[in-house]
UniProtKB/TrEMBL annotation, chains A, B:
It comes from Arenibacterium halophilum. PANTHER family: PHOSPHATE-SPECIFIC TRANSPORT SYSTEM ACCESSORY PROTEIN PHOU. Belongs to the PhoU family. InterPro entries: PhoU, PhoU-like_sf, PhoU_dom. The keyword Cytoplasm applies. Plays a role in the regulation of phosphate uptake. The keyword Transport applies. Residues 21-109, 125-210 form the PhoU domain. It is found in: Cytoplasm. Keywords: Cytoplasm, Phosphate transport, Transport. This is Phosphate-specific transport system accessory protein PhoU.
Amino acid sequence: MADQHIASAFDRDLEAIQARIMKMGGLVEDAIRKSAQSLEARDEEMADEVRRGDKAIDGLEELINEETARLIALRAPTAIDLRVVLSVLKISGNLERIADYAKNIAKRTGVLAQMSPVNDSAAALRRMAREVELMLKNALDAYIQRDAELADDVILRDREVDQMYNALFREFLTFMMEDPRNISACMHLHFIAKNIERMGDHATSIAEQVVYLVRGERPDDTRPKADMTSVTPIAE
Amino acid sequence: MADQHIASAFDRDLEAIQARIMKMGGLVEDAIRKSAQSLEARDEEMADEVRRGDKAIDGLEELINEETARLIALRAPTAIDLRVVLSVLKISGNLERIADYAKNIAKRTGVLAQMSPVNDSAAALRRMAREVELMLKNALDAYIQRDAELADDVILRDREVDQMYNALFREFLTFMMEDPRNISACMHLHFIAKNIERMGDHATSIAEQVVYLVRGERPDDTRPKADMTSVTPIAE
């Protein structure tokens, strides 16, 4: 097996898999954008499109995993080559999770469309989703170009997304306390905010893979966790 | 490289990695149990123990990933052997995520200890966590014994956990609507319920890996998704 390891054959196979990762990434970016747009516009058709589109993304992940296993079996990569190949599995897993969150948001659009809008929360959520979509785009660009500095930038920007989430969490609490009729809608909106925040975590995880691939060590894990809602008592 | 592939050496290496997976699994089961116990008993010291213990679990995942990469590089496994090795990576990833959820629950214990208890919610959450802990234990036993029927059973039981979550979701909404002073605590309790439900999803994902390893095909993906809260409007 290992005798057949010819650098160019490995590179060619890897390029094909990375092209598929980029295709999957494009579909996931669309899903993020459309899930947030359909929420703001109360567009149930667009939300359905996101829900239906998830199958194609799951299919791509399966395909990438199979091709990656075949690449390992055929080319028996070692050292840095192996690290690159294993990072493909992690990244396709991250992308699949982000798409799941987008699908989950799309599911809630139908329910929320039947309720009164809560202030301008949907617009705030769309802005937050837009930021995460950009983070993902840059994380994938950083991956393809092995650009650790761009990846560092993505990792830093995750804190802004966490701060957006914290602000929304407080806003939702206030709306619920002001008027119990807001409770139901705010529970859904809060879930959506948390889902977008988690998408940001997965984009960050891709960026961290890039840093690891380029520099050979994990990014500083003393990075502060900026979602403080779990440890902050809320004034009542 | 491939010439060095001796069946017994591969088996020995794999066994060592699987022993580490079981060790990690034991720590994660403890974290699930203790996070729920500390919540119910308002025991902040035990909650701190869970938070501090997460580092050891993360360390084990790193170690397992490195050993797995080394195994692939050294032994160049193919076909079913490769599939088994790749499943190790998925399972260690699932375990790490479950431990993260337990840590997140433990973080909220300190905040909730400062608020009035909301009915007997903490006891209900502890029962739900107990069910998930058992699912995880059985999923890991099924993995080590390659027991697809035990894995099927775990997959089925995930629906019960989803139903427990749905019931709690409705309960929290009711408590919040009845008395706005419950809103803050219920937001945290609801998060905890969702975290436990997600732990169940990860235990199920491990069971699905087992089915795939033993039968060579993924479990029926028409399995109904029983968390219905995202699509159910709540009567107000």
